């Protein structure tokens, strides 16, 4: 096995700089935090459960869900009593109107639309499509907090929309919902969030101290293996989809840190980082991510590769913690029936693009990807 040299460790998730505690609270409140009907729970999956339970749709209600999904949102919908009917996304990761029409019947009540990687879907079109068929439009903006389309916030066209605040800022947790029928405020005991905030601080240190980065790179796979083994031992094969207590509020640390972290420049910082990576690695980026819309707020930088797991390992040796984006679908999905979604799960890698990255970090990502690509090409040539 190749020796891992000391190197800064760069992960998908935004880090938490220690100096945040000395920042003043921002008066800026972006959508949906500026809405009276906004509720914030610990996780977005809990917000989904609460929002749909509040609608009282009945036992036969069906929601149209993309086959390319995380899985936790599906579990939350099932727990809330809905039935799932899957649809395939097209080459631009959009719903196909003709395909959706074939799925409609009297029980379908809603269309679930995902704004993948912070790239806005045409929500206005889909709102009009849903209105014409008396359906609810649900916008999943978990990865699209701060994104806009034609000057309008992503999530503002739907009957309800969901956001993961911790995917944009280095928070311990935080899942927001804005809905035409507001769910109740969370009522369970508030967790401190200290341990998760501490881990985000460690991630920040690992991006700047190579010796910490090395320990970080060695520890993360062990932690992943341990969590997977523990889940298998407890026969919790789908623990990553668990909803938990749907009345859990955001942690104390999230409530304290969020006003300090909110910054009107965050989305543009992410776009700037994305443009840099696109300028150097653009030939590896599939549509629709090969061009950057004006209002996008990128969650990650995607590249398409053939041997994804080997590529990830080579990136990790070079200090870049990418991930196979949504590798494991919800167990209710008949995977073979949706080949495009299956191919996306197996070949779409996500790389860091968050606002805490420095120019040196971005150059490290580019170099790591280029070296991994050359290495795998050479290995394939020898094997051939």
UniProtKB/TrEMBL annotation:
InterPro entries: DegT/StrS_aminotransferase (IPR000653), PyrdxlP-dep_Trfase (IPR015424), PyrdxlP-dep_Trfase_major (IPR015421), PyrdxlP-dep_Trfase_small (IPR015422). The keyword DNA repair does not apply. One of its GO terms (molecular function) is pyridoxal phosphate binding. Pfam families: DegT_DnrJ_EryC1 (PF01041). Transmembrane segments: none annotated. GO terms for biological process: polysaccharide biosynthetic process. Keywords: Pyridoxal phosphate. It comes from the Bacteria. The keyword Lipid metabolism does not apply. Belongs to the DegT/DnrJ/EryC1 family. This is DegT/DnrJ/EryC1/StrS aminotransferase. It comes from Pontibacter actiniarum. The lineage of its organism: Bacteria, Pseudomonadati, Bacteroidota, Cytophagia, Cytophagales.
